[in-house]
Structure formats: C-alpha cells, structure tokens
C-alpha cells in the first residue's frame, strides 16, 4: 500500500527534517502555536524557495493552525481574532503551496449551548476564503467540544455543509488516532463511521496515546510505548487511505521509527 508518510517537524527547515526522517511529507507551524501574532514563514530563504524546493524534493507540505484558535466559542474576544488568524494562516500557507491547513474543532463553554458553537462554525466557513484545503481535526477532550465524539462531528459537518461557501470541496477532515482513543471512540470502527459522516478523510494524524481509552487526555506517545495497540493504528491508516502525519515524540525511539513501523506494516 503506497501512502505518503511524514511527521510534524520544526518550522525553521522542514525539508531538512523530512530528509532526517525519510519522510514524504511534513507538517509545521507558521509562527507561535500558542500565540496570536500573524503567521510567518521561518524558512530562511522564504516562502517561494520553500515551495519550489519541496516540489523538487517530492515532499508535500502541511501547516497546523495555532492551538489558540477557537472559532466555535461564544466569547467574541476569542472567536473574532480566531477567524482573522485562521484566514491569515490559510493565506500564508497558500504562499508556501501546502496541501492543507489543519485546525482543531474547538469548543464552547461548560454551560453554553453547543448548537451556537456549530452555528459559529457555519458562519466561519461561510465567510472564509479557502485558497488551500482547511482540514478540521477531531479533538481529545472537553465535555462541550465540537469534534470530540462522532455525534458532535456529525453536527459540525452539517453546519459546514450549510455554510453555502462556494469552495466547500476545500473543507476536509483530519483524523487523529490518539484523540479518538482519548475521546472514547473505538478505533476498530472509527474510519467507517467518520466516512459515513463526512464522506472523506484527507489526512491521518497517526499517534500513540500515553493515556487510557476515554481519558480525554491529549498526550501522544510513540507507537510501541503507548496505550493503543500499534496494529490498530496501522489498521486505521490502511482503512483511511489518506496521507499520514506522525506527531509522536522525537526522542531516542522517535518519529523516524514510527514512520518506519508504518511503512513496514503497510507493504
């Protein structure tokens, strides 16, 4: 089975990081993932050079939006800047020629009506310009999250489809194995259920989990050191049939070992 496999890497020189891991693709941030400053390309030679050299090397590029973004929230001081920063990230990522921008589904407050959060997603997509695909990722925790459980993902997807954006083909889904495990969804059946909701899986985040099933904890582990049977991760990747980003720790038994594990078990 021939799928592109890669990892989340440092943004200063993604192509060197790809070569180090034997990766077909890389995912990186455009600036501080915990901050509100506008996106920037850290690659020393700039966006054009990164795009051209990645194409020459046959390495696909993906960008992860900042973690602080939450377009679902009822808090105007977070939601409005989130929409602005998300659009800036999409536009800057397009300059680099990425295959997609990944963003978390977000959440509303403990006592808030989740339907308002879904409607905020509808408004966000309605107004968004999508020069590159926007891939919404399932999340691990939070009782009022928009994309933790499958029933919430179904409502989120309905809201997205109701947005009326002329470029809905550029709104896709990123499936994270650790997040679904932590969220209490069975990995044995999750691909089939997601496809029944979205009709597509555009990217897989293949991650082990340091914590037990249903924990709600977003803590990734390397495949052979976590609470998810590595065979289940391989099965999800096979079933999804989408490119793969490994977001596991990169210590002694690091991302390259996890990429190699996938490659050996997919062939």
Architecture overview:
- The protein contains nine helices and ten strands.
- The strands form two sheets. The protein has an eight-stranded parallel beta barrel with strand order 1-2-3-4-5-6-7-10, surrounded by seven helices. A two-stranded antiparallel ribbon has the order 8-9.
- The model has no long low-confidence stretch (mean pLDDT 97).
- Helix 4 (114-127) runs parallel beside helix 5 (150-161) and helix 5 packs parallel to helix 7 (190-198).
- It has helices at 14-21, 47-57, 76-96, 114-127, 150-161, 177-183, 190-198, 230-240, 255-266, and strands at residues 5-8, 25-28, 60-64, 100-104, 134-137, 171-176, 203-206, 208-209, 220-221, 244-246.
- It starts with a strand and ends with a helix.
- The radius of gyration is 17 Å and the shape is globular.
- The chain is α/β, with parallel strands linked by helices and 267 residues long.
Q: What labels would you give this structure?
A:
267 residues; alpha/beta; 39% helix; 10 strands
The ordered string of helix (H) and strand (E) elements is EHEHEHEHEHEHHEEEHEH
- Helicity level: 25-40%
- Which strand-content bin applies to the residues? 5-15%
Cα end-to-end separation: 5 Å
What gyration radius follows from the Cα positions, in whole Å? 17 Å
Assign an overall shape: globular
Determine the structural class based on helices, strands and strand pairing.
alpha/beta
Instruction: Look at the structure and give the mean pLDDT.
Output: 97
Uncertain residue ranges: none
Q: How many strands appear in the DSSP assignment?
A: 10
The biggest sheet, with number of strands, parallel, antiparallel or mixed sense and barrel status, is: 8 strands, parallel, barrel
Number of helices: 9
Strand order of the largest sheet: 1-2-3-4-5-6-7-10
